[in-house]
Amino acid sequence: VGLLDHSHSTMAYLAQHRPQHTCASRCLDSSSSVRRYRTHTLVSVPSRYQTTTSTPAPQAAAAAAAASSSSSSSAASAATKTANSENAHKYAAGVRFAGCGAAAPALSLSNDDLSQYVETNDEWIRTRTGIGARRVLSGGETVTQLAADASREAMEMAGVTPEDVDLILFATSTPDDLFGGACLLQGAIGASNAVAFDITAACSGFVVSLATATSFIRSGAYKTVLVVGADALSRQTDWRDRTVCVLFGDGAGAAVLTAAPSEEGCNVLGYDMKSDGSRNMHLVSPYSAYVTGEGDEATTAAPEGGRPATNAAGRFGDITMNGQEVFKFAVSTVPVVIESALDKAGLEKEDVDWLVMHQANQRILDAAAKRMKLPSDRVVSNLAKYGNTSAASVPLALSEAVSDGRIKDGDVLALAGFGAGLTWAGMIVKWGK
Predict the structure, then answer these.
(1) CA-CA-CA-CA torsion for 211, 215, 218, 219, nearest 10 degrees?
(2) Catalytic: 322?
(3) Measured between alpha carbons, how far is 166 from 348 in angstroms, rounded to an integer?
(4) How would you write the pLDDT of the chain (433 residues) with one tens digit per residue?
(5) How far does Cα 26 stand from its chain's mean position?
(6) Cα→Cα distances 87→26, 258, 319, 398, 425, Å
(7) Which helix (H) or strand (E) holds 290?
(8) Is 194:414 a contact under the CB 8 Å cutoff?
(9) Would strands 423-430 and 412-419 be described as parallel, antiparallel, or unpaired?
């Protein structure tokens, strides 16, 4: 690791001391600005390294290579699965899910309300999406405010104070500031000891952020991590387009992850994440520096269709979506990424107590449950009340099911997100402290 040093003497040293199964890591001594190198010998558990103070003897390296090559691939696979299922990874710390919370705007916009603005009706929307209403920001509400409310609820459940939090991961595509929302959130809740930054992975953002938090905790870098998913896609919705405006709502959800002694295992049992930029065009809200129309009637346009905009006029356009392609993408990828996460956890579909997915369409939820052979009453769905809240949908659904007692400590959850990018992610967790 870190072999990008152009010093001939250093590279010569590394080439001379390059036994198999070792890797060199560069240490920068800031007091003397002298680069030193040390070697780490890999041990059987992939996620850990055993440090040595000197270069291993060639005989030891050869013996390690021989032992490695003598193991069959099937045996290695079985050993990995056993290690995962027994939670036997040797990390600096394990992960616990200590608390969760949620918040939504006060204004609820029903299907009947929408029918006054666009040509649609409750039956048309429900049969195609499962959505009955959605929450929309109003009266000065902000994404930061919703995220702060959800965070406070999660911290209260976890029994931690804002000063205890040392990392904030904010999954959002619609921050209140172009430069990001995490620091705004940090200031709003008074988490003065935390470093904070945004993660943009659209509707997969919360699950991707959980995976990121897991890595930081397992490494020993941070002990208390606040993971938040919040979005206000109403800001990017064309309320004249009935194919889009019926889908999206605003909201926020949060979870507090804490470190536990490594010998007690890790409650993140397995995860997998994917992306495919070649299919990005199916769900976008692109920036345009060209506009057509004037004043309130101005809309974004392709360069050949409009005039160059001033800095103030250019903006991100309304959401456009190829619904059929997104549906096919979701039903084909989500079950696969969950199965991959289950395999890494050493578990089977039958071990899952609850499926907590991104709330995009009831038909997608039903298709995923059918493939996993989960009865519908084991699938968390609040789509009818909130619609598609992007990065907020998974923590909103999770918090609701924990609050009403459906999800209990020790339950195994399959979490999944999917959306723009295109991105998708799955994670298997054991809920609780």
Answers:
(1) -170
(2) no
(3) 35
(4) 333 333 444 334 334 444 343 333 333 333 333 333 233 332 333 333 333 333 444 444 444 444 444 444 444 445 444 444 444 456 888 999 999 999 999 999 999 999 998 989 999 999 999 999 999 999 999 999 999 999 999 999 999 999 999 999 999 999 999 899 999 999 999 999 999 999 999 899 999 999 999 999 999 999 999 999 999 999 988 888 888 889 999 999 999 999 999 888 899 999 999 988 888 787 777 777 665 666 555 565 555 555 555 555 567 877 777 777 888 887 888 889 999 999 999 999 999 999 999 999 998 999 889 888 889 899 999 999 999 999 999 999 999 999 999 999 999 999 999 888 889 899 999 998 8
(5) 30
(6) 31, 17, 42, 23, 21
(7) strand 290-292
(8) no
(9) antiparallel
| pTM, full prediction | 0.75
Compute the distance between CA of residue 155 and CA of residue 162 in angstroms, rounded to an integer. 7
Give the active site residue among 203, 282, 361, 382: 203
Instruction: For 142, list phi and psi in degrees, rounded to 5.
Output: -130, 165
**How far is 406 from 131, CA to CA, in rounded Å?**
22
Active site residue 388: yes
Asked whether the bond before 365 is cis by omega within 30 degrees of 0, the reply is: no
Q: How far, rounded to the nearest angstrom, does the alpha carbon of residue 335 sit from its chain's CA centroid?
A: 17
CB atoms within 10 A of CB 419: 24
Nearest to 44 by CA among 67, 63, 61: 67
203 belongs to the catalytic site: yes
* Number of helical H runs and strand E runs in the chain: 13, 22
Q: Which helix (H) or strand (E) holds 186?
A: helix 182-189
Q: Which of 100, 183, 282, 358 is catalytic?
A: 358
Q: Residue 300 corresponds to which amino acid? A: T
